[in-house]
Amino acid sequence: MSADPIDGQVLLLTAAKASVPPTRLPELVDDAQTHLANRLERYRHEFERLYADEFIEAFLVEWGHWADLGAELGMSEREIAAVRRAHEEQVLRAGRRMDREGEFETAFEIREAVCIGVKSECESDPE
């Protein structure tokens, strides 16, 4: 199982701004994560990786990526916007810690963020 890509505080912040019920946002993020985790290798090969840590890999994707992905998942426009915003806020939060927030904000003018949770080494199956 992969890690949650979006921190709880980011979900709370996003839910406060989103036009979807706050109880619905974690479910939407989980649905997207399930879909994204199955395509992690594709993202690694096709998109620019902004950063990675032991729990998350964040990528820049073409504008409209979330609209397409959300449609695949059967999300409404509001739900797509909320999930996209959660991923962007997660990247911006990391950007603040790395002193790269301005760089990430500029990138979001032409591209979108996708965060994919990855299994940490602590969670790996023992052999």
Automatic annotation (TrEMBL):
Residues 4-117 form the DUF8048 domain. InterPro entries: DUF8048 (IPR058361). Pfam families: DUF8048. This is DUF8048 domain-containing protein. It comes from Natrialba asiatica (strain ATCC 700177 / DSM 12278 / JCM 9576 / FERM P-10747 / NBRC 102637 / 172P1).
